[in-house]
Amino acid sequence: MNWETGCGDDMIYFEEKRAKVVHNGVVCDECDKEVVGIRYKCAVCDDYDLCEECERKGKHSQHSMIRYATPNMPVGDSMLTICLFSVHVFWVIFI
């Protein structure tokens, strides 16, 4: 965690709030528990997810993982955004 980006109390609150995020319908493929907190989705495999604990233990380390702080919203450098412009339409697609 990068403590330099905010005040201590704010960062603690952020960490507590993030820890409560439930990714409904997403189960860790290592421990078979519902994913709560950061979700790690394999960038190579079709359907492979890890919880924070299993990712921290180095499970499935042979592939890059996409981090999701909230359901369906990648975070950090792992976010891939594709913007398509037209006359009246702006699309942002999160993969």
UniProtKB/TrEMBL annotation:
TM region positions: 75-94
Checking InterPro entries in the record gives:
Autophagy_Rcpt_SigReg, Znf_ZZ, Znf_ZZ_sf
Domain (ZZ-type) ranges: 23-73
MF term (GO), any: zinc ion binding
Q: Which UniProt keywords apply?
A: Membrane, Metal-binding, Transmembrane, Transmembrane helix, Zinc, Zinc-finger
- SUPFAM superfamilies in the record, alphabetically? RING/U-box (SSF57850)
Q: What is this protein called?
A: Sequestosome-1 (inferred by orthology to a human protein)
